[in-house]
Write a structure and sequence with these properties.
The protein has 30 helices and 29 strands. It is of the alpha/beta class.
Length: 858
């Protein structure tokens, strides 16, 4: 039969009546003829579905379809087995996870029970303390305890004085060196500076502030695109508002802001009562809606990227606006910044706010001296008063502005602060923004009547909204000195010989940067100088970096301060061996749980030994030997010793293998390269001359090296930069040897001079002058003593000369060879990037804090 379709129709016709599905006939599949009559040699039927293979192979008897069906079923069976295995494993994992979850829940329950027990125990302990402190016996023995504590402090002061006397041999050796290199006048100045107790804090007489008595013409600059919008809500009291506006006009940079006055339906239209004020924008509510809705309305109309909400019963002082906005610019995590508020008579009204567990709040420092150290450093706070707040406008919009559930007013400022934190940003207090606040001049002070009654009502609403957060706060009034810095992960005390002067010496710069990194790592840092000096602008520089700076007269001695606050600190860092000798015993006595860190800056005994080897003499050798034993004894007393180079770390590893010694070196950022080789000229040396090796170096350079350089590089000038230049060096000044002394801005020198020199003949540690030059890309010529422990390769990163001729030759080589100059400049910058960056310092400080975390009270 040749008609295949006819044959198939007849052959398959009976099959249409056989298969059934739930009682119904199933039509045969539409199978292409090729699956019954395949071409010669073709056996593949893999493009059929399982149903088609079943019909063709089982129902129609096709061998190829049946074989493919068998293969396909076998593969599916394997897949099913694999899926079952996966299911079984998932089931087992699920059971294991369930067991782990149950275990975790059990552990959490145990932990919660433990926390409950601890809270109960703490409450019982506090109750017992309260009972004891209120008992007759406790009150009767209070004088004895005070006498005992004073005796302990006095003993610590005596030990410090005795340690100072023990340094007489060192002072004598130093005096001889200063007398020889710098002359009697320089020695006399040093002695006078130490005895005179200069740089003491002297508070200025507080001005009495009062409202203006009449409204006069006042013209603001109309800025079309202001970075800041100052929002001043008001209801009546136009003279008070004028007083506020006049202070803004007098104490804020013109054109850097706009003023938006919100008239909350005052009885007298503000635009008319204040018509003498021009350049400010006035908007008026049709009805009295209160502080919150007025501020939100104004914020929607503001043109600035920063909003400043300012009560109309305030007087701002010089620098207030720049201080607020600087925090927002310098701290990327800052979302809200508040000011220091003072009363018109000068008393402190608020230095940031503390919110307690029950949602009650304190104006921290109320009625106290506003100059006290604890009120004058930038820090995170729970909230700041709405009398003066600066906030990022985009963030204000993101959190929904002031929450209207607190309308018409009160608790909206603390609520905004909590909302800012919930959005991932921080709330800061800025003490340099000092604002006089006539508290109660607008709303009164009676909590039972008027708008002020909402202060009590809204506290309950605030507690309900933020209950989960407030559980982590202390009960009302408990340890406010700790609650003011509740965010601190560690509390660190740093003690140094004198106030840090980072623009004058490398040691101060290193310490300043280390303290700033500690603050960034979430530490509350307190700095105190052994001489208790208050030296500006350096105190403010530290305070603006978030460091609390203690000074006289608020602290009368280190021992007294430790006796009062020692137990607060987790880490105490004492710099320089002669300061450690004075105070390490007091630290151990009053801060028994603190990690005690001896920051050497450099190994003093090593420097003295090298000076003795350079100059000879039994007295110098004996002094160096005595210093070695004394310094090693202090290292044994400390928990951790910081050095600035791996060379010193290795030396101490040999001398005291049991000591914990870490490297924390100088930290520098790479600076812009400045002028090209061809555009540069001259040599530069930088260093503070209170450091004897610097004076010795310049005397050696001027007497031995400079005459040779005048032959090799005629007319090339050497600039000598640094504070406290002694007369012996000033006398050597010449047309090509320019003694500049202290220079506030060194950038022009290091971007314009061709070579930096470091002709130190002795010393220890790491040389900041070399780091500084290399950070600017200025090639350095130095002695071997200068580059010890600095990871530098002579010829690749630096040129070295240890005698006058070799030093002069090296200077002349790099001065005249542009290719060598470029190579050394690149090598120096790479050295800074690899070994002296802030990231390297941050890593070292993080390890140091880990020691504190792992330390357990003995």
């Amino acid at each position: 039969m040749t008609d295949v379709k006819t044959y198939l129709a007849q052959y398959l016709a009976p099959l249409a009546r056989r298969p059934r599905a739930r009682g119904k006939l199933v039509a045969p599949p539409d199978i292409d003829a090729r699956y019954f009559y395949l071409p010669d040699g073709q056996t593949e039927v893999r493009d059929l579905s399982l149903l088609q293979l079943y019909a063709g192979g089982v129902e129609c008897g096709h061998t190829g379809a049946r074989a493919e069906l068998k293969r396909r079923v076998s593969a599916v069976d394997e897949q099913i087995n694999e899926l079952r295995a996966v299911r079984d494993r998932a089931h087992d994992d699920h059971e294991e996870l369930a067991m782990q979850l149950v275990s975790a829940q059990r552990e959490l329950l145990v932990a919660q029970m433990r926390v409950g027990q601890l809270e109960t125990a703490a409450a019982a302990t506090q109750a017992r303390i309260d009972e004891l402190e209120s008992s007759t016996t406790w009150r009767a023995t209070a004088p004895i305890r005070r006498v005992g504590h004073r005796a302990k402090v006095a003993a610590a002061q005596y030990r410090a004085q005795r340690a100072t006397l023990g340094q007489l041999q060192r002072y004598l050796s130093l005096s001889i060196t200063v007398l020889r290199n710098e002359g009697p006048r320089a020695l006399g100045r040093r002695i006078w500076r130490r005895l005179a107790r200069q740089n003491r804090f002297r508070p200025t007489a507080s001005d009495a502030f009062s409202p203006e008595t009449e409204i006069r013409p006042l013209a603001f600059v109309d800025s079309k695109d202001p970075p800041v919008t100052i929002i001043v809500p008001m209801y009546g009291k136009p003279l008070l508002t004028y007083t506020c506006l006049k202070s803004i006009h007098a104490n804020s940079a013109p054109g850097s802001y706009e003023v938006l006055v919100v008239d909350d339906a005052s009885p007298e239209v503000a635009a008319m009562s204040l018509e003498a004020v021009t350049g400010a924008r006035f908007i008026r509510n049709e009805t009295n809606v209160g502080f919150i809705r007025s501020c939100n309305k104004a914020a929607a109309l503001a043109r600035g990227a920063i909003l400043v909400f300012l009560n109309n019963d305030t007087i701002v002082t010089p620098g207030w606006l720049e201080a607020l906005t600087t925090v927002l610019r310098k701290h990327p995590d800052a979302g809200l910044v508040g000011a220091k508020l003072i009363y018109p008579d000068g008393r402190l009204q608020e230095a940031g706010g503390v919110v307690w567990r029950d949602a009650s709040a304190w104006n921290y420092g109320r009625d106290d001296d506003p100059h006290k150290p604890e009120y004058n450093y930038v820090r995170e706070v729970d909230y700041c008063s709405g009398a003066c707040l600066a906030v990022d406008r985009a963030l204000f919009d993101e959190v929904g502005g002031f929450d209207v559930r607190f309308a018409p007013a009160y608790c909206e400022d603390s609520d905004l602060a909590f909302a800012v934190r919930a959005a991932g940003r921080k709330v800061y207090y800025q003490p340099l923004a000092t604002v006089v606040h006539f508290e109660g001049a607008t709303s009164g002070t009676d909590l039972a009547s008027g708008a002020k009654r909402h202060q009590v009502i809204n506290q309950s609403a605030f507690l309900a909204k933020w209950a989960d957060v407030l559980r982590r706060h202390r009960p009302n009034g408990l340890a406010p000195e700790l609650e003011r810095d509740r965010w601190a992960r560690r509390r660190v005390l740093a003690i140094d010989a004198c106030m840090l002067t980072p623009d004058q010496d490398s040691g101060s710069q290193r310490t300043q940067q280390a303290l700033e990194l500690l603050v960034k790592l979430g530490c509350k840092v307190t700095f105190i100088a052994d001489n208790l000096e208050y030296r500006q602008p350096y105190v403010t520089l530290l305070q603006q970096a978030g460091v609390e700076v203690q000074f006289h007269p608020y602290v009368r001695s280190i021992s007294e301060f430790l006796g009062k606050h020692g137990s607060e600190f987790d880490v105490v860092v004492i710099a320089r061996h002669y300061i450690v000798a004075k105070h390490i015993d007091a630290v151990r006595a009053f801060a028994p749980n603190a990690l005690v860190v001896f920051d050497t800056h450099d190994l003093h005994f090593l420097r003295e030994e090298r000076l003795a080897a350079l100059e000879g003499g039994r007295a110098a050798t004996a002094t160096a030997g005595s210093s070695r034993e004394a310094e090693l004894a202090l290292i044994r007393k400390a928990d951790v010793t910081l050095v600035v180079s791996p060379v010193e770390q290795g030396l101490l590893g040999e001398l005291l293998p049991e000591a914990k010694v870490m490297v924390l070196s100088n930290m520098h950022e790479l600076k812009p390269r400045g002028k090209s080789f061809a555009e540069r000229e001259g040599l530069v040396f930088i260093g503070g001359f209170r450091h004897p090796p610097n004076a010795d170096a310049m005397l050696w350079y001027a007497r031995e090296i400079l005459p040779r350089l005048r032959e090799k590089l005629p007319g090339v000038k050497t600039y000598v930069v640094g504070s406290d230049v002694p007369p012996t060096i000033k006398k050597l000044a010449a047309e090509d040897f320019i003694v500049t002394g202290y220079v506030p801005d060194i950038t022009p020198l290091f971007t314009g001079c061709r070579v930096s020199i470091s002709p130190l003949r002795y010393g220890a540690g790491v040389k900041g002058k070399i780091n500084l030059a290399m950070s600017y890309g200025v090639p350095v010529v130095a002695t071997k003593s200068s580059i010890e422990g600095m990871h530098l390769t002579p010829g690749s990163d630096v040129l070295v000369g240890d005698d006058p001729e070799a030093f002069a030759d090296a200077v002349a080589r790099v001065y005249n060879d542009e290719q060598l100059w470029e190579s050394l400049a690149a090598g120096g910058r790479e050295n800074i990037r690899t070994h002296f960056s802030h990231d390297v310092g941050l890593s070292a400080i993080t390890r140091l804090l880990a020691f504190s975390r792992d330390r357990r009270p003995s």
